[in-house]
Amino acid sequence: MEKLTTNRGFWLTILLTIVTLGFYQWYLIHAFARETNLVCKDDGKKTSGLVVYILLTVITLGIYGIVWWCMWINRCNGYLSRNGKPEGLQVSTYLLTLFLLGWLTLGIMYLVVFCKQLYLQNAVNQTYNELNNL
User: Mean pLDDT, the chain, as a whole number?
Assistant: First the structure.
């Protein structure tokens, strides 16, 4: 068993995203899918990886990307709930920000939700590490 990353911070992630011209976001999707599939392997679901994410998001004109994030949020929160931990980002918050609050707040809520996505994966990984004594 490998120890999973639990210290993805908002500011470093923003910096890496800027420096890599956005490619770090693709890495995060790959890492989130891999880590979620490892941690939640007993729930009978699978989070698709980066290639499927990109292809289906392009084919569906962005709809699959929204669905992917919603399924990922639900899967992570389910894992935290099953292990007695508080849930993180909610799908309703994600969707409200995506369709309404993001542009109303001039993009500030997009950053808040992005930060909460990082912290949600950190919490899932921390729980996994604790349960497996890593």
Answer: 96
